[in-house]
Amino acid sequence: MIISAIAVLFLLFLSAFFSGSETALTGASQAFITDQEKNGKNPRARLVNRLFKHRDNLIITTLLGSNLSNTLATSLSTGVLIGLFGNEGVAYATIIMTFLVLIYTDMLPKSYAVRHANTMALIVAPWVNIFVKIFAPVVWILQKIVQLTFRPFGIKQQEDTKGDGLAEVRGAIYMYNDKEGRQEQEMLKSILDLTDITVYDVMNHRKNLFSLDIDLPMEDVLKKIENCPFSRIPLYKEKPENIVGVIRVKTLFKAVIDNHGDFSKVKLEDLMTKPWFIPDNTSLKQQLQWFRARREHFAIVVDEYGVLQGIVTLEDILEEIVGDINDESDISNLDIMGIRKLSENSYIVDGQVPIRDLNRKYGWHIEDDNAVTIAGYLLDMTRSIPQAGQKFIFGDFQFEVIKRDKNQLSQIKITCHENQAEDTQSTPA
Description:
Layout: H1 2-27, H2 30-38, H3 43-53, H4 55-85, H5 88-115, H6 117-134, H7 136-150, H8 164-175, H9 182-193, H10 199-202, E1 204-205, E2 212-213, H11 218-224, E3 232-236, E4 243-248, H12 249-258, H13 268-271, E5 277-279, H14 284-294, E6 298-302, E7 308-313, H15 314-322, E8 339-343, E9 346-350, H16 355-362, H17 374-382, E10 391-394, E11 397-405, E12 408-416, H18 418-426
Parallel strand pairs: 2-3, 5-6
Antiparallel strand pairs: 1-7, 3-4, 6-7, 8-9, 9-12, 10-11, 11-12
Helix pairs in contact: 1-4, 1-5, 1-6, 2-3, 3-6, 4-5, 4-6, 4-7, 5-6, 8-9
């Protein structure tokens, strides 16, 4: 009797082990385990990943071990209790084993495994791997039975993971709520968004483009670029839309120095490089790859008709990932972003400020599906060209047109409601 009781306890322990192992190994973060394998050089993590690759074998093994243990434990306990209480022992065994199995071999191990899935998966992996090898012949037979059962219903056993990889990465980023890592979270989101954003969304619009007439005298050229914060400048002929080349300021200054200030020997045509034209619907991901392949940092954006739209640089794309990048040459131009704070929840914004910049800077959620700039947003939402002084409320924001130049909304006051103001205060600028 004592031996039987010990055997029952051992079988219940095995059942608890299989039950908890199944929960831990199926619930463990594959990203965490992969990190432990690649960066932590943890051999157990490598073993867990190997088990991940054959989930069917893993699940069937743990289910088989758990059910065998429970069945044997119930049979032994029933035999013991029948010997003690006669036929009533069946009822006693049923009640006692149901309680023990439910609480100690199912609820407790699974509850613990859910809370400590990653740690427990690394601990139990070597032992589970042994049982996978022991039960391999039986598991193979059971898999064939399952396949034959599925076949009449046309159910395929192959795992359908098409398109799931990127979605899982995106979901993992959104689930990460650590305030200390919020900046890293935003950067990772931005990287995944590069496929959905076009160069048109981030380019420097032609209206704000700093360019030079290629036919200007060299003295005038040098005066214009004396305080220029840009390293590359587009060159046009006859009209600003006709870009014929790009000049590097450094190259120009070097040529002037090499010729000892003799401007007659310095020709922009000889120093410029050919302009690189790209379509305005190019994704940032594709453009970043092109920048790397061509080893260039500067491109001219045109529409489907070849009309100049603006320029995009490598820095524009990097700013989509890491936020605004300001160096010493940008100090005098920090207001170029066109945002002036009036109070805790009120701002004066230049109409050409991109909606994405506002959303990123203040943690807002202004829709940018149909418009790029905040002025474009108002035009789209109102289906008109508002007059100065007009106010509108869309979602959690109030918009007031402060200044209008002809048909262009040049200054807009944005006031966010209380819930958006709280988000703004908690979001790093």
